[in-house]
Design goal:
Elements (H helix, E strand, L loop, with lengths): L1 H19 L5 E5 L5 E2 L5 E6 L3 E11 L4 E2 L2 E3 L5 E5 L7 E11 L4 E10 L7 H64 L1
Parallel strand pairs: 2-9
Antiparallel strand pairs: 1-3, 3-7, 4-5, 4-8, 6-7, 8-9
Helix pairs in contact: 1-2
Length: about 190
Amino acid sequence: MFKRALLLIIVLLIALPTAISAHTHLETSNPEENSVLDENTEAITLTFDSTVQDVNEVTLTGENDEVLQPDFSHDSADTIIVTLPEEMEDGAYTLFFSIVSEDGHVMEQELAYQFLVSEEATPEEATDEQEVTEDPIEEEADQVESDANEVVEDTEESNNSTMIIVIAIILVIVAILAVVMMRKNKK
């Protein structure tokens, strides 16, 4: 009896941390984060490192806090294709998504992009306009990227804390079971 319980405990100790750390994470985005998009960019493809069970939410937020609800498809187990809305205007945008991984955990992330509508202008005018508008847009993109990285880091820290707590609880249960089994063997 004691050997069976010990074997079960060992299997649980090996299996649980693996299952707990098996969250789904964004592997790639195409175009990459902080890219400049234009009217020729039809979609953003998000590819994850494992199966996405469900998509909770996908939004695009402009620099004026206008929230757009883009269409998206989730045809492949590990890929989401976000179709860009036609009503996008020049400026910085944040793509937010919330998914449920195959292990049931929610993963949220934000990606920063710039959207520029190409206008037919002379090369001199285009160069002047780009010089004037690049600095504020780059600053906004850097801020959005920084905020998104903080969200991801907070989520990862929370996941690590949860895993440590679960392991600690399992070790306490193992210790209690060991003491109970030793007492039964003495009787």
